Amino acid sequence: MNQMRGGFAGKLAELRDKLLQFVSLVELELDFPEEDVEFANRQKLYELTEEIEREIDKLARSFQLGNAIKNGIPVAIIGETNAGKSTLLNLLLNEEKAIVSDIHGTTRDVIEDTVNISGVSFRFIDTAGIRHTTDTIETMGIERTFQKIGQASIVLWMIDLTTPVEKIESLAESIVPKLADKHVLLLFNKADLLPDAERVEKEHILPELKAERLFISAKKQQNTDVLQQLLLKAAAIPQIGEHDVIVTNLRHYEALVKALEAVRRVKEGLEIGISSDFISQDIRECMFYLGEITGQISTDEILGNIFSKFCIGK
Questions:
Q1: How do beta strands 73-79 and 120-126 pair?
Q2: Does the structure show a pLDDT above 60 at 76?
């Protein structure tokens, strides 16, 4: 990855240099209005902001790929107690990582591990079973389950087909609102225990949930190959070659997002003809966040660039 070879720092340095030229021109308007200096027109400045916006956005978007490469795509396995979550995790990992028991609430904490499927790394998270309970420890585990849902890119919601529909729908009231921006795979487990007619009836529950639906039997390893294909489809990871530079550091990503917000404010300011001092402030903010990554934070470089590039006071 080019980030490890210095490509990341080089790209950011290039962007900062363009911003430096940009803000120098803007501040010339503010600080030296009486000087005979040829400024770039607003259209050219606007085109430059578009270029910088595209580059920063491309770097920020590469974080999804970089994070997947570095840590694995986070996949939360959720569902009611005793739905077969731990059995599925062990099957996917091909080892006895989680304790499997008929006793409800056996998994009270989060269990994580990573597995490679066709070259793509997935970080599976087996969570505590969700149910109505007064047990303090189990309740804490369920709260962690909801936290992990928020952190996951993909959610495998396991439903025990032997569970009454009314109970599933009651449980769904606390789960569905947390899945709005997630790629959800609805897994109907223990499919081997029900006749076809009953399976078809339950397939259409929770119509409000946009999710692919699959009948499986984790215990008998039915349709697990199809599940793996659905996971790869849900991951939808772009080819590495599409990105010159890949961002894997969370702090870098957060700084890029803030820099992107700032440069977009500059662009909007140019569109509505906002005052140059506000435009200058947003450019400086964008440079600051890029500088947080590269270590190039200086309050004197703008003025120095003005005096080195333009004949001021002569």
A1: parallel
A2: yes
Can you give the pTM of this predicted structure?
A: 0.58
3-state secondary structure the chain: CHHHHCHHHHHHHHHHHHHHHHHHHHHHHHHCCCCCCCCCCHHHHHHHHHHHHHHHHHHHHHHHHHHHHHHCEEEEEEECCCCCHHHHHHHHHCCCCCCCCCCCCCCCCCEEEEEEECCEEEEEEECCCCCCCCCHHHHHHHHHHHHHHHHCCEEEEEEECCCCHHHHHHHHHHHHHHHCCCEEEEEEECHHHCCHHHHHHHHCCCCCCCCEEEECECCCCECHHHHHHHHHHHHCCCCHHHCCCCCCCHHHHHHHHHHHHHHHHHHHHHHHCCCHHHHHHHHHHHHHHHHHHHCCCCCCHHHHHHHHHCCCCC
Residue 6's pLDDT band, with cuts at 50, 70 and 90, is low
Tokens matching residue 196: 């076809």
Overall average pLDDT of the 84-112 stretch: 65
CATH value of 71-240 in 3.40.50.300, 3.40.50.410, 3.30.420.40, 3.30.450.20: 3.40.50.300
pLDDT tens sequence across 146-185: 788 888 889 999 999 988 888 888 888 888 888 888 889 9
Q: What is the pLDDT of residues 183-235, one digit of tens each?
A: 899 999 998 888 877 777 788 888 888 889 999 998 899 998 999 999 988 88
| CATH superfamily of the domain spanning 2-68+245-309 | tRNA modification GTPase MnmE domain 2 (1.20.120.430)
Q: Measured between alpha carbons, how far is 107 from 128 in angstroms, rounded to an integer?
A: 5
